[in-house]
Amino acid sequence: MAFESLGEKLQQAFADLRGKGKLSESDIDSALREVRRALLEADVHFQVAKDFIASVREKAMGEEVFGSLKPDQTVIKIVRDELTELLGGTSSQLMLRPSGLSIIMLVGLQGAGKTTTAGKLALRLKKQGRQPLLAACDIYRPAAIKQLQVLGEQIDVPVFRTDDTVDPVRIARYAVQAAKSYGKDVVILDTAGRLHIDETLMQELRNIKEEVRPQEILLVLDSMTGQDAVTTAKAFDESLGIDGTILTKMDGDARGGAALSIKTVTGKPIKLVGVSEKLADGLEEFHPDRMASRILDLGDLQTLLEKAQREFDEDEAKRMQDQMLAGEFTLDDFLNQLNQIRRLGSFQSILGLLPGMGKIKDQLKDVDLESGEIKRIEAIIQSMTLQERRDPNVLNASRRRRIAAGSGTSVQDVNRFIKQFREMRKMMKQMKGFAKKNKNRKGGLGLPFLPR
């Protein structure tokens, strides 16, 4: 999980401040020494860490509790605000034309994930109502064009390519012409990378830039390379001029040093982050304030709500809510809701968006929405007839044996699940009175993880 180790160390640094009536200079200096150590261990650029500590110290020195906040919360608020600024301050949108053709040029070194990111970006724009075209401009890496074609087929986005090896500049020009001819409004250029930065690479990219005049030049960086990513970003910006960065593999980087250093070192914002290998939900807009809150275990409920609104059908959620309150919630409904919650991501990623979950994540580390227990429940329900799913009361001993055999479970497993489901329905009926008392509340009662 992104920033996991950094977040743990920052929270430990604030532990000794709890219960103090006022912050002394020694209190602040002691905590900030730990913060500085945490930043450096997270592979944050030395000068960035030094300036960050100086800014926090200046604002924290002599501060009193804000209203009802405790001293440690005062320091956390200051650190959160400074982290937000360090990460870019505000979200940076892609600069696309409201009408006509927009050109996005993806650049970076080999292995950073440019081609996969191109596919994710195309799908993201498609969901936003755009009509993207992918352009295969990498003629050097073996199978690069084929990889882009496969991605294009998976997301139903056309890919412009040439059968013969030609100049990447001409490919980019032809791709733009093709996009105009076929009524596309975004061209995503997947350019070639190198194992290291060299003048040949940079000159080729400058030639493409000069030829097609892209609205966005986005540098794709592997966040797990830490300070190497920052060095790469600085070199690309100085030689080519970039408009922003996309950090890949953020879900695998527990340190996060690259994200915390890039904006300060290059002056260019992080626009998108890769958070999953899946094409459908693997690219997210980067929100500095939300990320700062996640690092400090303050949660990110706004992102959780947005995920739920994207994944859940509002009418279906309302129907299930009404059925729950009427005591008519079926096993089919239960399976449907389980699958909806699963679409939000892994259980651990959902926990990371909830305030204070860092304190208990170790106890919940083995909980998995893809666990054997969840799969057994799915198998049991799917082995039932339509009548049995709608009315579990018909499940006699013979039917339960058949279901156990069909699902690869035991009769005891089937009995235990049916008992749990019945207990859950009893609780739902008890909630009916509570719902009546709150019937005027906007959005109704709401289901767990469902938007209100």
Task: Write up what this structure looks like.
With 452 residues, the chain is an alpha/beta fold. 53% of the residues lie in helices and 9% in strands. The protein is built from 19 helices and eight strands. It has an eight-stranded mixed beta sheet with strand order 3-2-4-1-5-6-7-8, with helices on both faces. The radius of gyration is 26 Å and the shape is flat. The relative contact order is 0.10. Mean pLDDT is 81; it is low at 437-452.
Please, how many helices?
Answer: 19
| Structural shape | flat
**Number of beta strands:** 8
Q: Based on helices, strands and strand pairing, what is the structural class?
A: alpha/beta
Distance between the termini: 28 Å
The overall pLDDT, averaged over residues, is 81
Unreliable spans: 437-452
Share in β-strands: 5-15%
Short characterization:
The protein is α/β, with parallel strands linked by helices.
Name the features:
alpha/beta; 19 helices; 452 residues
Helices and strands in order:
Elements: H1 4-15, H2 25-41, H3 46-60, H4 71-86, E1 102-107, H5 114-127, E2 132-137, H6 144-155, E3 159-160, H7 168-181, E4 186-191, H8 199-212, E5 216-222, H9 227-239, E6 244-248, H10 257-266, E7 270-274, E8 283-285, H11 288-295, H12 301-311, H13 314-325, H14 331-342, H15 347-351, H16 372-382, H17 386-390, H18 397-407, H19 411-437
Parallel strand pairs: 1-4, 1-5, 2-3, 2-4, 5-6, 6-7
Antiparallel strand pairs: 7-8
